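Why run this: before we spend reagent on co-expression, it is cheaper to look at a predicted model of the complex and decide which construct boundaries make sense. The entries below are exactly what would go into the expression plan.
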Amino acid sequence: MSEFLIANLKLDRWLPEERTKAGEVPADALADLKTRGNELSVFEVDDSTNAERIVVAFSATKSDLADMGYAVFDGAPFDGLGIVPHRSPGMTPDDLVNTLHYDLQHLTATQVAGLAGAVANGRSDLILAKRLRVLLRAGLDAKRLDPARVNKKLMALLK
Amino acid sequence: MTTPQDTHQSVEAPGGSGSSSKGKGTPSVPRRVYTRKQHSTSPNIWWKSTTPDLYSKLRITGLDSATWFAFDAKVTNIFEPLKVSESLFEAHRIYEGIVESFKVSESIFEPLKLYGNAFESISNWPSVQTKPALSAVLAAGTFVLSPSWTLPATTGDTLLSSLEAMNATTFDLDRAIEIQRHVEEAFVEAANEEFEEGAQSSFSRTLVSLIVTFGNDTLKAIEQLLDSPAVDPEVAGEALRQIGVVRHDDSKKYRRVILEQQLRSPSPRRRYAAALGLAAMDDPGAISALEETIVVEQDLRLRRYLSLVLEQLQDTDRCPNS
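The model came back. Tokens follow.
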């Protein structure tokens, strides 16, 4: 199974507190896996693109320029959790990234908790706002990002 | 109610010219007069130990409770050697418009022990228990200070630099209380808010507005709230990020101090948020604090995040316009 990326993580929520047992995920991390209509958005990470491009494209939909945490995790646990990724076009300003978008549908609370474990076992990383600004501008310059679909407030900040 | 103005007359030491209860004669304490005019000119000034004012009044304003407790111990130091014959004096603690009169007996200042009896008695004041943030105290009465007493450098410098950092050489208690109230309300309301990266929160807007409007007074209130274990970790983290994000040059030094302090927090969430705040400030002055934090950081993921912030600041240091 492929690797998947989930963006928009507040990484501090995933840091174990003193009393968190090894292998456990702090409950606050579930706030980063908030479903809407029992769905969650993830992106497949393949060889033709990279995680950073996905995160930049995703960030281009936000209204503010902020540090962006994300995690790349193994999709192997999906089977055991009964999660079937459903490919659907993404809504970012990057067409290539949109082809990598999946919805995790009909999620249950149990599945979300299991997903949290998969994410916690993945590789989390962070793009700081200052660097994100550079990457967004580069994406616009290289026309990977369609300026018409970049969040207007964010566009104003990038100018 | 006794007001400072009412009591700011020249204070005579009991038993005449500054005699001590030990009967060792008249100490060579210069007779000082703190006049009504002086008070009206500078009502809320922190007086250094070398100023004449300390010989007649002791005035402490705008200190948080921890500092007050520390200073209280110094008060103990001041009075213990004297054992003034009429060993009672009054400390008036003014808080939120309520004047609490507090009779301090000689026994409270004995034995001379840091955080001893005086600490306990002060901590029993109701307003200290419920609102530890602000203290304004006027200790007045029939006493003299030890002629040899000076504020120890370690304590004095810390207190003075703390006040200077706050730009609070002068201090408006009512204003500070009002700001404290605003900040507390913002924190309470924020506990019901959901924070998301890349989206401004109502809390962040409020906090930025308060910092821009009231500068270091707001930061002092935030700093004190962050000391409370009751503060929601999510809200604390958001506050630390916003402390770094806000563009306000006048408070930059104090903001960095707070963030660097939080880098040493036992909570990994606080350390993370403080680092993000420092990244937003992009001030290379925080490099050494970050380096020290990274060296001792046990969590590998957090160490990675801290290193990213450090790299950014090092880049900024090399190329300030990057």
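The helical segments of chain A are 51-59, 77-81, 95-98, 109-120, 129-141, 152-158. Chain A touches chain B through 29 residues (CB under 8 Å). Bring this page to Monday's planning discussion.
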